[in-house]
Design goal:
Layout lengths: L3 H21 L5 H20 L3 H24 L1 H10 L14 H15 L2 H25 L3 E3 L2 E2 H22 L4 H20 L6 H20 L1
Helix pairs in contact: 1-6, 2-6, 3-4, 3-5, 5-9, 6-7, 6-8, 6-9, 7-8, 8-9
Length: about 230
């Protein structure tokens, strides 16, 4: 016969094992995911069709200047903060009311990419962020069972790598020339780099770490496979 203490211990273990799963099942913000993808799509369009790095840098710096000015303004004026949070409410996280929001970190990443990454690497970085990040979140929340770290699941991370590699491959085909094997290799590097950056982005926002990491690593990797 099983003792009450054994039953209690089993119950506590089961509840502990289910905790990460329940956290992953919080409602998915589909509006934020669509906004996430759309923002990346706009960035991809600019990178693909603007004629020079100067134009890309000019637009990125302008976007970042607007974003950071709003951050400063809403710290100074609670009324402005309230208006901005109402306007961006459908796509904002609750904690962003009092912290630098993800869009500002994304704008900052665009400046870094425009200054330091190659055009193909910029395309890969924005494709990975826009596609893989929301897909990984959706898969992790619905089907994640094996937690890796900081609430990230093995299932979500694998979904990130697969979708990020595919998205990067499509983006690279648009602007890069070369053997199919080289493009596939760079795409796989982009997907894996983005997944690692997302997995370890606990202190920094992943809208900064993912595109910057992917952009810089793919730029370096392209020099090796060229």
């Amino acid at each position: 016969m099983t003792s009450p203490s054994t039953l209690q211990g089993t119950w506590d273990t089961d509840r502990a094992s289910e905790a990460p799963r329940r956290a992953q099942l919080r409602p998915t913000n589909y509006a934020r995911s669509i906004f996430h993808f759309s923002s990346a799509a706009v960035g991809l369009t600019c990178v693909a069709f603007l004629p020079s790095r100067g134009w890309l840098t000019f637009i990125a710096v302008g976007f970042a200047a607007y974003s950071w000015s709003m951050e400063v303004g809403r710290r100074i004026s609670p009324a402005l903060n309230d208006r901005l949070m109402r306007f961006y409410g459908p796509v904002a996280h609750a904690h962003e009311r009092y912290r630098v929001n993800s869009a500002t970190w994304y704008a900052t990443s665009l400046v870094v990419l425009a200054l330091a990454a190659s055009r193909p690497a910029m395309m890969a970085a924005l494709a990975v962020l826009g596609v893989a990040d929301p897909i990984a979140a959706l898969v992790g929340r619905r089907w994640g069972r094996r937690e890796l770290r900081a609430g990230r699941s093995l299932e979500g991370t694998l979904a990130f790598i697969a979708s990020g590699s595919l998205a990067a491959a499509i983006a690279l085909i648009v602007v890069a020339s070369g053997p199919v094997g080289s493009i596939a290799g760079l795409a796989a590097v982009a997907g894996l780099t983005g997944a690692v950056a997302e997995l370890f982005s606990t202190r920094l926002d992943d809208n900064l770490t993912i595109p910057v990491s992917v952009g810089l690593v793919v730029t370096a990797a392209s020099l090796v496979v060229a």
